Amino acid sequence: MRWLLLKDLQLLRRSPLQAALLVLYPLLIAVLVGFAISRDQGDPRVALVSPSAEEGVQIGGQDLNIDPRTRLCARVECIDAQSRAEAVEKVRSGDALAALIVPRNIATQVRSLATLDPARPQVEVLVNREDPVKARFVDDRISSLLAEANLLIARRIATVGGEYLGLVLNGGEFEFLGQSIPILGLRASTGILTALRPEVPPGALRDSLDQVIRFTTLARDNLDVAPPLLRAVAEPIEVKRSSVNGEGPPLDLFSVAVAATFTLMFVVVLLVSGSLALEREENAFARLTRGLVSRAGLVGEKVGLGMGVGMAVTLLLLAGISAFVPLDWGRFGLWLVAIAAGGAGFAAGGAALGAATREVRASSLLAFMASLPIAFLSLIPSGAVGGGLFDAIQVIAALFPFKPALDATTAALDSAGPNLGMALLHLAALVVAYGLLARLALRRFAAV
Amino acid sequence: MAVIGPNGAGKTTLLSILAGIVEPDGGELRLPDGGVGWVPQRAALYRRLTVEENLLLFARLEKREDPHASADEMLELTGLGDRRRELVARLSGGNQQRVNIAIGLLSRPVALLLDEPSVGLDPRQRARLWDFVGGLAEGGTTVVFSTHDIGEAERFGRRLLVLADGERLFDGSSEELRSAVAEEAPEAAGRDFETAFVTYLQHRGH
User: Fold this and answer.
1) How large is the ipTM?
2) Which candidate in B17, B41, B58, B100 is best for mutational testing of the A interface (most A CBs within 10 A)?
3) Is the pTM of this model over 0.80?
4) Per-domain residue ranges for chain A?
5) More confident residue, A384 or A261
6) In chain B, what residues touch A286 (CB-CB under 8 Å)?
């Protein structure tokens, strides 16, 4: 079998176009994918006009970080601007996609929210809408940041408001202009008034006293529920996030896995189907299987060829992509296992195609026609189509090697990926099934 | 031995059965010790490999003790030694057929099956081919070839087997076939042998 393998590699080498494609194709894909991913990682630039970060805000005795750099600059690339005019110019010239203008007295304004004379702080957002997609993106990021800031402040004010209400209810010390003012509180007031009541003779004064006692009792009872109500107003809907189906891998690594699996599929399916069909086109099949090589052996040799070349090409691709996206080379062993298994699945599928078509051109055409739709079907996420249709797509995708090969590659690239063992088992079953199909279809090769 | 007959007579099927490529529906097949070489009608070669690479590949697959020596031997036998490093695709049809036959001879079989070896060759190439095949036969190799060309069969076949629609019509020497044709189709007497042979087939219902 090794001599046949050597012969196939010699034939590959003899075709400069094919050999060049095998090397250039993965490199080209690697550069394209790597460039796309690394470009996507670049955050949009936002011009920021903001007072010094040193000016902090205290509300209710606690520091409140209202510096936009802390949160915004973690999500976008901030460019400092000294004035509104400079920020507008940066947005107009395209140097920045948007600008966030924070007033110089923002700290005072925010601080006033917890006083008896609150101001309403205002920030300004400028967005360049030349690129609607990016504009929407940056708009969403700034809006999300402001919503977070609003929520943070509202929570803190609700807490301060709750503390004031507690003082009114229970009494205590109130600090004002450096002086401590004792506050009696509703509970103590009710107690005093109730104690006084027997001393007051029945009549109009006692009736008035009863009215005050009823009011203080009612106010005390109802103010008990005010603090949780204030908190609810500050954050009416609480969001609880949890993941279904476990944590997925990062989008970058999934993109790398898709690129690697696509490359593996095209190279291996086309190579193996064409190589097997070539045995018949060159009329060598009958001579080979006349005692020199068994038909199963021939299928095995082609699967081995596909695995070997597929692994080399896919590893070349991953090495190329690693120049753009950091890959965990510590998982190299798992990469090899996943790519070998995926390559075997695609090679067995390619052998079945080559055996069924019997002609190199027809096998190449069929390989393209069959591989692309199956790959795209396998990438349809749940929720994109109706439940019944999605189930049908899942079943169809499971009959072909792309989905398990993608799962295996994703799992090999990142520990948060799908279950590698299941994907390998799935691929092993498909290798056996397609290998048998190829062996059966080879009967047509022998027709005289 | 020349196997002759019209299209669809079963010549290729018979040779394929003898080569072990096709399973017979019935009957008994006895093959000589020492193996049977098979040369298909269309050259079974890798056109993008050189002559030598093709010979070496099949010598290795045949598990020859010294594949290089076997390949050299065949190159000498076919007279293609000076073209050993040439791609098969660049060879003429006649030379491709010589390489095709050489591969069939790699296992040094006692019998060689040639399926219409002269198809597609020009007269000069055909003459060289039959010289080569004649040399093999003189060297002791039993050669069974199929052909459409009755003249070729008469000239190079010591024994002729006539098939039509899978039926054996005649088995004997060319002289015996001439006698049988003259007896079956006297009206064709005096005409060329090919015309007489066609008349003979018609008389036999083919």
Assistant:
1) 0.80
2) B58
3) no
4) 2-37+251-444, 51-241
5) A261
6) 16, 21, 40, 44
